[in-house]
Amino acid sequence: MAEASGDPPPVQVxxxxxxxxIRATGxxxxxxxxxxxxxxxxxxxxxxxVVDLSEVxxxxxxxxxxxxxxxxxxCAPHQRALVCRRGTARALVRTWQLARSxxxxxxxxxxxxxxxxxxxxxxxxxxxxxxxxxxSPRARREAxx
Length: 145
What we know:
alpha/beta; 40% helix
């Protein structure tokens, strides 16, 4: 229906620097989530995937969990990234504990730059953020020795 009105489809795939960038727009309802999951599964077979949720309104945990689960199941650990431009969206994803094994970035450009740096030996690439520790700073320092 969206195509008939001239609007772009709610989910698009764009190859960038050897990575499939999957972008979604609009509400993260069942049709958009289904389309995202299908494209993640298809693109994950080919290599690295970035899912860009910057133009999506995150209202509930369940649809985002379906997307992150598909990303984890379809892509190797260092071949998956999630982009949420707004700080509130990233905070929700972290609070909902949905990015424990997915690298989380502010922009697609940031995600691609992290891969470039890793290839050049300058950074960790797409490693998921370490879970928040409940240990004291001193205990963390001692554990790192």
